[in-house]
Amino acid sequence: MVVAIVGLGILLLGCLFYYWNDIIYALPATFRCSSAGGGRRSRAPLPPGYMGFPFIGEMFNFLYYFKFLGGPDDFINAKRAKYGGTGGLYRTHLFGSPAIIVCSPAANKFVFQSEANFQLEWPAVEIVGKSSLVAVHGESHTRIRSLVVKTTNQPDALRRIAEMVQPRIVHALQTWAKKGRILGYHEAKKVTFENIGNYFVSIEPGTQLDVLDKLFAGMVKGIRSFPINLPGTAYHHAIQCRKKAVAIFQEELDKHRDGFASQKTRNDLMDGLMNLKDEEGKQLSDVEVVDNIVSLVVAGYESTSISIMWALYYLAKYPSVIRKLQEEHSSICTNGDQYVTSDDIQKLQYTTKVVEETIRLANTASIIFRKARNDVDYKGFRIPKGWTVMCWVRYHHTDPENFEDPLCFNPDRWNEPPKPGSYMVFGGGSRICAGNMLARLQVAIFIHHLVQGYEWELVNPNAGLAYLPHQKPLDGVEINIRKI
Ligand code: HEM
């Protein structure tokens, strides 16, 4: 009898432990009567799913698919197999929060286009800055965004930046060829950061830029860590790094303002942000300029360098694509060391397809996060207020329903536009990437100089892939490279 009672107790405790998060989060949300869905009372059920153990939720399962199995999309496939399509919504508990996974193009479009219901909420506003584009909302967001995109994403800015980035890209490729063997990941990061130093704030390669690079590495680690600001934590270190980076940028801003700036510095991104005026003729404050420089570096640095790394990787694997590129690029310039303009690049249709295909497969922003500000009904399911919404966009890009033979690098698939909503590498809605044209341009310029002047091959063509924190080959894309 005693044994039976103890056994039953253990069983109950086990069940309680197993369903803890469902009991704590899903049950109350299921029975809460809300006015979701346009004012009428709603009792829509939560999307199906499993929320895992106390605190850790489904984190072990997530890591199992991302780190050990090497198949991040199978995390979703497993849910699809178990629960069905369900309009692309599943409930879970990840990164310390109850969450709804959103993984269909239509559902993600719905989330991105409803900023009133689904707010971008960076966990690390103290690191990127309270007045940076990613941290502000509503009218402030519209105002700052209109100024930021003028300096990063519009034709005049792109023309200027195309000129500014090429000397370092050409120099980097020459240096790589002299070394003979390089790690694509490290070298792509190096040249991207040198260019950021140059066209953001006119800082030349050297000690100050190396210091900034280390400070940004510290900040990015903090952004990915648990936000506990105690000495010894990555988050605390990131905040210290931010303070030092802000001091450097403030000093540069003072130099720009005092008129010590040379003609060259008057064309950089900091100068643009300082001098542009909004519709009411108001300029950004110093704090706004510096916060936005910091967040633009965070948003543009790793994403661009990883895309360049993937261009090196995929082109090495597909020599027929290189031959087509060489043919197209010889029409604008015959020598890999000559500079091209952004207008030249826009005309190159095949290159545009190669860039798009590279960025699709790079999946730099695999999951985009939002917070539900209200209870919202979608396709008969409830997304509860306060829960994290995980827009799992990488799933669209690797789903054969959207892209035939999705893991094959095939630029020609872009002869036709993708299915509506299936291509969301840059997000969507009012938060769509503010540097998407700039990212594409930099990858295209890099490809231009690479294919016109160099030949290279992968040292480990069968290297496995890592998926966290970003998707990249485990060997960091080691290549042998030489001048043609
Ligand atoms: C291939 C490279 C890149 C990819 C894949 C990428 C991807 C993204 C994505 C998915 C978002 C949306 C995030 C969200 O909705 O929460 C985003 C936002 C943003 N990106 Fe990019 N990005 C890239 C390059 C860049 C570059 C080069 C810059 C600028 C230097 C930049 C600046 C920004 C900014 C400022 C935002 C925030 C926009 C806002 O909140 O209004 N990105 N990016």
UniProtKB/TrEMBL annotation:
Annotated membrane topology: Single-pass membrane protein
Q: Key word S-adenosyl-L-methionine present in the record?
A: no
Q: Which domain of life is it from?
A: Eukaryota
Q: Name one GO cellular component term.
A: membrane
Residue sites binding heme per the record: C433
Provide one Gene Ontology biological process annotation. Answer: brassinosteroid biosynthetic process
**SUPFAM superfamilies found in the cross-reference section:** Cytochrome P450
**Chief localization:** membrane
Query: Which terms are listed as keywords in the entry?
Result: Heme, Iron, Membrane, Metal-binding, Monooxygenase, Oxidoreductase, Transmembrane, Transmembrane helix
What does the UniProt entry say about where the protein is found? Membrane
GO molecular function term, any single one: monooxygenase activity
Q: Do the record's keywords include Protein biosynthesis?
A: no
| Cofactor(s) required for function per UniProt | heme
In terms of InterPro entries, this protein maps to: Cyt_P450, Cyt_P450_CS, Cyt_P450_E_grp-I, Cyt_P450_sf
Q: Which family does it belong to?
A: Belongs to the cytochrome P450 family.
The protein here is known as OLC1v1012756C2
